[in-house]
Amino acid sequence: MKYLTKLLIAVFLLGVTGVAKAEVSYYKPSSKTGASLCVVVRDDVLAHTSQILPLNIKGGMITPTGAGDQTALVLKNLDYLLKKVDCSLNKLVKLNIYVAREELVAEVQQRLTQELELIAQPACTYVVTKLPDPKALVAMDAVAATESSSKLTETKVFNDAPSGFRVALLPAGRTAYISGQAVKADTVSEAAILTMKELFQTLEYLGAKPKNIVHIKAFMTPMSQANEVNEMIDGIFPEERRPPVTLVEWFSSLPIEIEMIVAMPEEPPASRPAETVTYKTPTGMKASPVYSRVAIAEVSDRIYVSGITSKEPGDYSTRIHSVFNQLKTIVGEAGSDMQHLAKATYYVSEDGISGDFGKIRTEYYNPKRPPAASKATVKSVGVPNRILVLDMIAIPAK
């Protein structure tokens, strides 16, 4: 935290007497974008939401308004949901923002700056994708700090019946980030079923159970089958334990890839572990020097980094190096480094970048300690003339 001291706009201490206080630090919040460069949260129960659409909760319909008004409605719905678990927009640490068209990003950013307080602006990542409802122009999922005064020992899921939105509470303690897994099949629904079965084998390897799942993200095609995918995933779980789900349309020969965030069930150690993040390869899977099958945050601290794009256009190599050099600087100033990265999501809008991307990652990652990761080819990364955005969760090095 020493690097952040001179750069922070605000630090919030959340908690009550007798309970370890959660600290949330916002690094370089921007009045232009409504986002911070990164957000550091320590020792807290974290709320993870499902993908929130601009629905009228009472009517269950999306009114065909502009992206700005839909952004305001999404945030209203998000605040409604977070308050169900003693949270609010003022405690957001991360927003993943999904827009239907690239040109809408500026309008969404403008509305965010109006709706969110400058001192509590989350890390944000944008991606352009079709949404589960074709009338939606914008959707979001979120991570937020809570003011939990009790020790949470297992994942808690709240399902809001009127809206269908969900929020899961991740206990403070060890957390597994599982890289995207995919199984080939003829249809997206069949592929989703087979992939979830494979993911459950990964859970078993980790000593976790389906009830420990905090969030599921699926990269799928086509988005027109979103309802079928949601119903398939929901059908695996008891109604009261259905986890939050986010869907992103990707361009791939595979119908679907699914990643997970999972609370590890055992008690956290009495003292802070020497190693704050560890990396696992489940039995039967092949290790890779550029991504880990599973990364486990051994502590409750998280560093959420806003989506990073190259500073200027250039060839593939120039763009990739720009993104990783920015990441190296940001996590270093936040108290981490390139050997304590937990979860990466790479969105690319030109699949041709993949070859250079795989090679260059080896220059920045320790082959024994790369983050868990998913890479998705999407319509746009939300910034004109950019073809790569890197979304990262890091863990403090000490």
From TrEMBL:
<dbReference type="InterPro" id="IPR006175">
    <property type="entry name" value="YjgF/YER057c/UK114"/>
</dbReference>
<feature type="signal peptide">
    <location>
        <begin position="1"/>
        <end position="22"/>
    </location>
</feature>
<comment type="similarity">
    <text>Belongs to the RutC family.</text>
</comment>
<dbReference type="Pfam" id="PF01042">
    <property type="entry name" value="Ribonuc_L-PSP"/>
</dbReference>
<protein>
    <submittedName>
        <fullName>Endoribonuclease L-PSP</fullName>
    </submittedName>
</protein>
<keyword id="KW-0732">Signal</keyword>
<dbReference type="InterPro" id="IPR035959">
    <property type="entry name" value="RutC-like_sf"/>
</dbReference>
